[in-house]
Amino acid sequence: MFTGLVETLGAVVSIEDQPPGVLLTIAAGAIAEAAAIGDSISVNGCCLTVVRRGGDGFSFEAGEETLRRTNLGKLSSGSRVNLERSLRLDDRLGGHFVSGHIDGAGQLIERIDDQDWSTFWFAAPPQLMRQMAEKGSIAVDGVSLTLVDVQDDRFSVALIPHTLNVTTLGALRVGDAVNLETDILAKYVQRQLAYGDAETEKK
Questions:
Q1: Pick the CATH number of 8-85 from 3.30.750.200, 2.40.30.20, 1.10.510.10, 3.40.50.1010
Q2: Could you tell me which residue, 46 or 55, shows the higher pLDDT?
Q3: Is this model's pTM higher than 0.70 or not?
Q4: How far apart, in whole angstroms, are the C-alpha atoms of residue 31 and residue 8?
């Protein structure tokens, strides 16, 4: 479990083929030095397990489905990624509950920069849009954000200068793909409503 508060930016050192997946090695400074084999780390919002550690870097195994369903499959040497260690029971929760299980891919379709601030519009699949509400929470590449406007096929978020500077979101360009995870509470509500409708139809 994570909070969506990115701790640091990492840089991809290498991507080694390990069919059907890859071994992804990332330089991450102090976070990597403090990590242990088996630790869970959010990489662009995707929960991965540390399988190797050395110096200021650590490595993860990413399977075929992970590479296909997230933007991790588009990474190359030198790519920057958002990193967050898993939440401890005694940690403060500054963002929202983020599981690290990506629900789908979104795409930046409009970027409106106003001096050091920005408004981003993302396109998203309809099934994910049904789990979003204005002023609710969304994780974009692992970053906890507040939804501003929610439409049938798109949503917007407002980004402060700090978020733009310390995460990968500041470098996004129109057309870039992002990992999306909707609020876990919205999933449960949707499931309960669907179950209730099904029970009603049986009567």
A1: 2.40.30.20
A2: 46
A3: yes
A4: 8
> Of how many residues is the chain composed?
203
Average pLDDT over residues 13-35: 95
- Domain ranges within the chain, ordered by starting residue: 8-85, 104-191
Counting Cβ atoms within 10 Å, is residue 47 exposed (0-12), middle (13-18) or buried (19+)?
buried
Q: With H, G, I as helix, E, B as strand and everything else as coil, classify residue 137.
A: strand
Helix (H, G, I), strand (E, B) or coil at 64: helix
Mean pLDDT to the nearest integer, 156-169: 98
Structure-token pair, residue 64 = 């075929």
Q: Among candidates 112, 104, 184, which has minimal Cα distance to 141?
A: 104
Q: Which two tokens stand for residue 96?
A: 């929202």
